[in-house]
Amino acid sequence: MSNVYPLQIKAVEKETxxxxxxxxxxxxxxxxxxxxxxxxxxxxxRQNGDETIRRSYSLCSSPVDDEWQVAVKEIPEGRFSTFIxxxxxxxxxxxxxxxxxEFGVPVDTKASKNYLFFAAGSGITPIISMIKTHLAKEPNxxxxxxxxxxxxxxxxxxxxxxxxxxxxxxxxxIYYFLTREQRDIELFxxxxxxxxxxxxxxxxxxxxxxxxVFICGPEQMLFTIRDTLVENGLAxxxxxxxxxxxxxxxxxxxxxxxxxxxxxxxxKITILDGGKEFHFTMSQEDDNVLDAGLxxxxxxxxxxxxxxxxxCKCKIIEGEAEMKINYALEEDELDKKYLLSxxxxxxxxxxxIDYDV
Length: 357
Ligand code: FES
Known about the structure:
The chain has helices at 79-86, 124-137, 158-167, 194-202, 219-231, 250-262, 289-295, 331-335; strands at residues 5-16, 19-25, 41-48, 51-58, 68-73, 93-100, 114-120, 142-149, 172-178, 212-217, 239-243, 267-273, 276-282, 313-318, 321-323, 338-340, 344-346, 350-354. By secondary structure, the protein is an alpha/beta fold.
């Protein structure tokens, strides 16, 4: 699994009332390992008593900046985000895993592409990194951003976005949508629902000219935008998205409790990792294979524990397991028996999984 490095905090700055930007000091000897692509995230780690807590936050800086910055929005009762927003200060240290994630697409300096971005709230974090990178490195490409917030005062990175619009004059269009403030043009009031996306496709967006679309926000918005763009003729494989999970839906909860009933008590689990084998027995109390493995002493990779980041991905070699939720694996990966271990519940007496594939 990836190494964890203690990094010094260079700066902690308030971006809005409940969002903080953290800048890390990456020493020269770690710069190669911490090199990143636009759209990737850093996983931060801290000890809370006996518990190791990790959270992944998208990098909001661009690889062209030689800066490592994440923006963290305070979530009510979110232990990590509250700590960052209220306690963390410059010169403190935090354990950090090197960048990972596959949200972005490769930069092509000769490309002349049209990128479309949809973001809600702190979903802007990976998006602003992508916008800056593509504009800086692809002089012939253009970007359109459709950005949803509650109020004008809660818009994260308003100033940075306006700077980018000026710096790359004529190549970045930004449209702000607000849910709790009324403005004169009705189109820009309220959520990005299917009607609104249809209107955008008939006015501001030339769907035939779009090369790549990136959507970052909560599930319902994300799938509504994706499906509406597809109905308007956009090829599905041009749409890339990253989900900001806000909790399990009622349907997810019902599915999880059904799965719990199917869960085999006493399943024998074998983990293959780094050429080593690790064995343990899973009990009815264990919530998922990853946590049961960590409890039994295995050193396994994880970050979000929410079925989103795929850091805990492994492959079933023998036996069967079901996932409570899966926001990360595609159909073809499921066909090849890949599994998110943080969501996995064994449904056979024996389960063998491999983390090295
Ligand atoms: S740890 Fe992120 S999907 Fe499992």
